[in-house]
Specification:
Blueprint lengths: L2 E7 L5 H14 L12 E3 L8 E8 L6 H5 L3 E9 L1 E3 L8 E4 L6 H7 L5 E5 L8 E2 L2 E2 H6 L9 E13 L3 E8 L5 H11 L4 E11 L2 E2 L6 H9 L8 E2 L9 E3 L2 H8 L12 E7 L2 E9 L2 E7 L3
Parallel strand pairs: 3-12, 15-16
Antiparallel strand pairs: 1-3, 1-14, 2-3, 4-11, 4-12, 5-6, 7-10, 8-9, 10-11, 12-13, 16-17, 17-18
Helix pairs in contact: 1-6
C-alpha cells in the first residue's frame, strides 16, 4: 500500500495515536501480524489532541512526501472566547488573565486586516518547540518561565463567522508554523480583551480537505473487513498542487538511476514525474534540467 489515509481526527486523539490507528487497521487487513511486516506509516502534520479535523497519514512510499506536507498551508476554523486567557491558550489550561471587555462583531471585523498578510508571531509557551534541548511544554509544565522567539508567518486569509458577544468563530488560511492559539490570543489583546481557543478544527492541509477524510470508526471497520484500500488515496493525491511531467520509459529509467535529464521542455519548479500511470519521482526542473528531489520505489 502506497498512498494517503486522511483521518478526520476526533477530539482527544494525538497525531501519533492516529498513526497507531492506521497501523492497527493495516494489521487487521492482513498486512502482517507484526509491526516490521507493515508498510511505513507517518503523519503529515501534528494536530493537537484538543483539535479535530484533517490529519493526513502517509502510507508506504507516500511517507517520502510527509515532510512536504508539513510545509504546506493549512486552513482552520476556530472559536475564541473573550474575557479569559489560559496558560495553554485553550480549554485545557488554567486562567492567567481576565477582562471585562467583550468586543462587538464590528470591532472584531475591523481588527482582522491587522492580522492578515505577513506577521510576526510569538508561539505559545505550551508548544513542541525546543528550548535548550527541551520541549517548551515540558518546561512550562514544570512551572518554568518559557520565552520563545517570535517567528515570521503568513495569514493568507482571515474571515469572521458567528459572533455572539462572548465568543467569535473565524476561519484562517495560514502558512506553515502558524499557531492558531497565538493568533487568537493576539486578536483578543488587540481588541483590549483577553481570550483563549475553545474550538479548533483543521478543514484543509495542503491538497487534502474534510471531503476526503474518514472517521476512526470507518477506518477500523475497513481494516476488519479487509478492504482498507477503499480508504486509501493515491500517492499522487499529495502532489495535486504541482504539475505532472510525463516521461518516456528511457527517461524514467534514467531518473530512477539518479541521473539528470537535460533538454526537457517544462517550466522551472517542482513537478511530479510519471512513467505512464506510475509515479517515478518528485523532481525539480531548472533551465530544462530535471533532478530528483524524492524518488519512489514503485
Amino acid at each position: 500500500m502506497d498512498g494517503w489515509i486522511i483521518l478526520d481526527k476526533p477530539l482527544g486523539l494525538g497525531s501519533t495515536q492516529g498513526v497507531s490507528a492506521v497501523k492497527r487497521a493495516l494489521r487487521d487487513s492482513g498486512y502482517g501480524p507484526k509491526l516490521r511486516d507493515l508498510p511505513k506509516v507517518g503523519h503529515g502534520g501534528t494536530l493537537d489532541p484538543l483539535a479535530t479535523g484533517v490529519l493526513p497519514i502517509a502510507v508506504g512510499e507516500a511517507t517520502k512526501l510527509a515532510g512536504r506536507m508539513l510545509d504546506s498551508d493549512k486552513v482552520y476554523d476556530f472559536t475564541v472566547r473573550f474575557g479569559v486567557e489560559t496558560d495553554t491558550l485553550d480549554l485545557e489550561g488554567k486562567p492567567v488573565a481576565e477582562s471585562d471587555v467583550r468586543p462587538t462583531r464590528d470591532q472584531i471585523a475591523a481588527i482582522l486586516p491587522r492580522f492578515t498578510g505577513p506577521i510576526d508571531q510569538m508561539p505559545p509557551a505550551y508548544s513542541a518547540l525546543k528550548v535548550d534541548g527541551e520541549r517548551a511544554y515540558d518546561l512550562a509544565r514544570k512551572g518554568e518561565v518559557v520565552t520563545l522567539a517570535t517567528r515570521a508567518v503568513t495569514i493568507h486569509a482571515l474571515t469572521l463567522g458567528e459572533a455572539d458577544g462572548e465568543s467569535a468563530t473565524l476561519t484562517a488560511h495560514v502558512s506553515k508554523g502558524t499557531y492558531i492559539r497565538s493568533l487568537a490570543r493576539d486578536i483578543a489583546l488587540a481588541l483590549g480583551s483577553v481570550g483563549h481557543v475553545t474550538m479548533l478544527r483543521r478543514v484543509k492541509a495542503g491538497p487534502f480537505t474534510l471531503e476526503s477524510a474518514i472517521s476512526l470508526d470507518k477506518l477500523s471497520e475497513s481494516g476488519k473487513a479487509r478492504d482498507l484500500e477503499q480508504c486509501l488515496l493515491p500517492l499522487r493525491a499529495g502532489l495535486d498542487d504541482i504539475p505532472a511531467l510525463l516521461l518516456e520509459p528511457g527517461q524514467a529509467g534514467a531518473l530512477r538511476q539518479g541521473k539528470v535529464l537535460t533538454g526537457i521542455a517544462a517550466n522551472d519548479g517542482q513537478h511530479f514525474a510519471l512513467d505512464g500511470e506510475t509515479p517515478v519521482a518528485l523532481v525539480e526542473v531548472s533551465d530544462g534540467n530535471v533532478r530528483v528531489v524524492r524518488g519512489f520505489n514503485l
